[in-house]
Amino acid sequence: MSSSASQSGRAGAARKRWQWRPLLATTPMALTAIGIFVVCVVYSVVLAFTRTKRFPTFDFVGFDQFGRLWHTSRWLASVENLLIFGVLFIAICLLVGFLLAVLMDQKVRMESAFRTVFLYPYAMSFVVTGLVWQWMLEPSLGIQNEVRSWGWSSFSFAPLTDPDFAIYGVIIAAAWQSSGLIMALMLAGLRGIDSDIWKAARVDGIPTWQTYLFIVLPMMRPVVVTSVVLLGASVVKVYDLIVAQTGGGPGISTEVPAKFVIDYITERGNAGQGMAAATMMLLPILLLVGPWVYNEYVRRGARP
Amino acid sequence: MAKIDGMTHSSLIGRAAVTPRSVSPRVRRRSTAAVAVRATAVVETQVDEGTAEALATAALQQLGQTDSVQPKPASRRRTQQRYGRLGIYGFLLLSALFFAIPLYVMIITSMKGMPEIRLGQLFSLPGDPTFAAWIKAWSQACTGVTCEGIQAGFFNSIKITLPSVALSILIGSINGYALSFWRFRGANLLFGILVFGAFVPYQVVIYPMIIGFREVGLYGTLTSIILVHTMFGMPIMTLLFRNYFASLPSELFKAARIDGAGFWQIFLQIMLPLAVPIIIVAVILQTTNIWNDYLLGLIFAGSDNLPMTVQLNNIVTTTYGVREYNVNMAATMLTAAVPLAVYLLSGKYFVRGIASGAVKG
Amino acid sequence: MTHLSTAARADNPYSVAIRDLDLDFDGVRVLRSLNLNIHKGEFLVLLGSSGCGKSTLLNCIAGLLDITDGQILINDRDVTWEEPKDRDIAMVFQSYALYPQMTVEKNLSFALKVAGVNKEEIQRRVSKAAEMLHLTPLLQRKPAALSGGQRQRVAIGRALVRDVDVFLFDEPLSNLDAKLRTELRVEIKRLHQQLNNTMIYVTHDQIEALTLADRIAIMKEGVIQQLDTPQTIYNKPVNRFVAGFIGSPGMNFLQGQLQLQDSQPWFIADSALAGLSVPLTHYPFCADLTGSKAVELGVRPEHVVVGEAATALPVCQEVGVEIVEPMGSDTLAWTRLAGQAFSFRTDTELNLKPGDRLLIGFDPARASCFDARSGERI
């Protein structure tokens, strides 16, 4: 190669082109990302270690708030409810969603009509869902009464009035609202599978149900993961549904952490305790979502 | 049909000894390619396409019902098939019934009078349909201290939703565009934080936000609730637009730069006109999300601007004397009407929206 | 590698000069200390397989990628950190990159509007470019309503209207089918002869490279392997990689030893069975020979002579045909020479069949000899 080239030096390398327009344009994003999702989160966690009541103080009390939290029966009930609700809600949604998607995938007539019916609950507010199901499950005028009037006088289905079963009433409502979403995601996943797979399975003589279960379902892992992540995120956030359907009752039988936090920072005026609870809510998200986000978006670079 | 049957038989006989296991290596190799397909990005096209797959599936159906090696008489197969189809439709119809009943109950209850409701016949059609409950819900029901119905909430929700949707889409599209085409320092980190933010429960950040808004004197104003919706909508909007712009050929951007267009010229003249489909998705997604919000409206909107969802809950919980279920259900229907209308009108865009915007949860 | 001396450069400045260019991508060095000088009006082709850095280099010249180190000069002006639009370049992309929402006319005029050129001038330049590329009847159509060939002509037109000195082509024909590709190739060549602009053209297709280029730069792993006229690259490849890359069907490589016998160089093929000794007396060696070493002797299939005429050549052997591949205009036949696979081109008229025996020969002076270890030409 020509040796005369390097003589004029390499002064240029130092001054990179300065891209100030994209930086300026994304200022709102930077402010939100840092202001809300870093500063506010950190601030909340810090307050969890203080004596803060209605207004923030920086009177640090160590882990006292957490100690008290884990001795509060309402918090313990909230966590237990969240676990029951989370496991059952996710399981039901996945099961119903996958089943419906597979059936819809059988080249049924009026597919779009079915899809419209399965999915419309997802368009509605959790408040609406909660109120409808509160009405449907009303003991003296709802489903229980209706079935009894058909002649089955011992029929009993009024979960919302029974502290042991109220949370299951909430699960029915939540699953009613979200199963359609999973159906739509799974159906899209099924349609996205290479049609050669079906040909290969057919040539090899594998029954349809086995193909779905052993070949197609494992291939849909990304869709299943997406579904679980989505449902999981909505489990942690569940608030409006409880407020509308049961108000946390009867007693504290349907309390959830999200409602615990809101009640403590508003009505109860004990934000320190509320922030300790919020920190506990953040923990699983941080552990589960943090590494995934880092891997997916930060380390790998801007372009997928 | 008959032709396919014949084919199926011969292939079945020929392949009788093949076990499911033998297909797996082939399957596995293809699966890597399939995994690379992002569930989020491809939904819309897949839902409506795929006659070839459907054909394969239809053919497979028949296979599914004939596990045994021996070819059966065609008539018996066809009978089995018919039962199979019947089962599928039966199950789907039952499921549809389960999903549809609450809406049905909501509508008929809202059109009954209280005496009829007290008869306790949940599913029976109203004997004397009336819209009295709707009128009461709209203009007279008590939402707390005042008894002016849910109409104030309706207009509040509109005042909140319109600017929030516009602002969040504007900012989200700029973010997505900047992130997709312009590499700048710290972009990945910022975006990572933002995506993480999509998963952070509101409860974790709400108290500091209340304090912050109170400090600047915005707490409990229309401005604050619009800002809050814009900020909480930013992760999903940014993700939506970033993925969309990233799917456009980067050569388009390069060509525009060679042609001398700058940051805003490329955005406004080249990219935004191309983003119309995703803007529609974003409008649908944000309209339903913001309209359906309860918590943020309750906390940030202030008592003068409480959105419809909050008013609705107040109507139901504020009871003087008898609970008026017909009014409650009418108010519920009124609140659900806007997102339901958006859903029914938007069709596949809604599906695409929830799939790509699914992160919001 | 450049032909011009430093003195000659003053009165013939380069159109594009790249000096010691380095480019890192996520910590990986994609281009390393690359130097390249392109003359005014030259048609230079960057040729290589995918991932060799040729498109990356083009993007650097265009200013679409920030380089890590080095300098880029266009028309003797340092443009290393200039915006693409200020570099006096235009670019044509593989995927055409037409703005889908704009008509052909708007696509063509977009750059000029952005630059604030007045209406009459835009009108004049657009209609001139449209005429040159036979696009006039298509001006009001949108890209979606055009065929692949028409789209690429619009893309070329978009470069044309900018009236710049340097055209960059990034695999412009790769998305087209074979017939269109040939047509458009001729059109591009005609365009170059009319305009006499500098053109830098990236491709992986050696036919495009050989037919279009004044000079070809063959790249591999971010390094230019050889920069020369198509003829020289074809006849005197500098290393084993270039020799294997250029030419279709590919060059034969015979493994063996280079030995001095009675101060005459000989190539002795590695073989367990039949021996093959090739006298290299007339071979144009690059350097003086010292001792024997392992080498590969490269012989192009089209340089092999068949039949009685072969007896006149320094190397001549009778061989048996194993496989015959008719290719229309001629036939490629496979045999073994000194136990190693060897192909040669023959006339289709010969009507060869597997098992036939015939005489083949070649002239070692036209062959290429490479160091088996380094791959460099000897």
UniProtKB/TrEMBL annotation, chain A:
This is Sugar ABC transporter permease. One of its GO terms (biological process) is transmembrane transport. Its main location: membrane. Coiled coil: none annotated. Keywords: Cell membrane, Membrane, Transmembrane, Transmembrane helix, Transport. The lineage of its organism: Bacteria, Pseudomonadati, Pseudomonadota. It holds the Pfam family BPD_transp_1. The keyword Transmembrane helix applies.
TrEMBL record, chain C:
Keywords: ATP-binding, Nucleotide-binding, Transport. The lineage of its organism: Bacteria, Pseudomonadati, Pseudomonadota, Gammaproteobacteria, Oceanospirillales. PROSITE patterns: ABC_TRANSPORTER_1, ABC_TRANSPORTER_2. It comes from the Bacteria. The keyword Transport applies. CDD domains: ABC_MalK_N. Gene3D superfamilies: 2.40.50.100, Nucleic acid-binding proteins, P-loop containing nucleotide triphosphate hydrolases. This is ABC transporter ATP-binding protein.
